Amino acid sequence: xxxxxxxxxxxxxxxxxxxxxxxxxxxxxxxxxxxxxxxxxxxxxxxxxxxxxxxxxxxxxxxxxxxxxxxxxxxxxxxxxxxxxxxxxxxxxxxxxxxxxxxxxxxxxxxxxxxxxxxxxxxxxxxxxxxxxxxxxxxxxxxxxxxxxxxxxxxxxxxxxxxxxxxxxxxxxxxxxxxxxxxxxxxxxxxxxxxxxxxxxxxxxxxxxxxxxxxxxxxxxxxxxxxxxxxxxxxxxxxxxxxxxxxxxxxxxxxxxxxxxxxxxxxxxxxxxxxxxxxxxxxxxxxxxxxxxxxxxxxxxxxxxxxxxxxxxxxxxx
Length: 318
Description:
There is one protein chain. By secondary structure, the protein is of the alpha/beta class. The chain contains 12 helices and 10 strands. It has helices spanning 10-21, 32-41, 82-88, 109-116, 167-181, 192-213, 217-222, 224-241, 252-262, 270-276, 287-297, 302-311, and strands at 2-6, 25-29, 43-47, 53-55, 59-61, 70-75, 93-101, 121-134, 137-151, 185-188. Strands 1, 2, 3, 4, 5, 6, 7, 8, 9 and 10 form a 10-stranded mixed beta sheet that branches. The protein is globular, with a radius of gyration of 19 Å.
């Protein structure tokens, strides 16, 4: 498959490197130092769970015109770069292209749908933790390398191109098999909305609390007050989700906390890394979304209100 990775950061770089190493035709869109490093020295992924991967000559550019139409394009840029990325990716989108957002948050797919139509856009969830160690070098942490994607709803493409009704599903199944062959876990979901909320239920709380306290997961779990804040933040997401048609199992919070207990103590989130390095934060799309959705549904969200209020001044720091 011809696969585009729009945003060769931590997640995009990890995914693209594994697919390229498996022989797929992978094209990266990167910028600045990341693109320069990949062109000069290749792309390196360090991973104890999935093995180290080295792509000596990755196909990387900052000009999507050089890539042309792809079978699949993964959007992996930060949420605040979404609108600019969508304008740039137009040359990579042909009549049969499938688009998958692997970004954080609940609404990452919506700008893609507006630009290119519901039919070709899949929601996506990336269950992995990675960060850019230095330009061109990505460090993947832990045993997670699972990707879930699926259609929100069939519909017409925004640009009026004809697509057979089952074409997106067939291509999604093909992509799943390609990713499994590359050593990753991949699933096509029939209920991607719930999958997106399920990840959000632990990501938004952990991202917000970790960035607010400037501490990784192990430190948070070891402190009773910080742990209680994390649990309260999870509870608020679960309560809000019920007002938006999402039904979780009653033990979701307990299961999330058990999952956290099995993770490496140094585990954080990309927002913690961004906070520590003075970069822009995705907090408007994480705790900010919980707060906004909560107010709209008249569900109290005091923990996320506080996190958003404290961090929003850092959101444009860079």
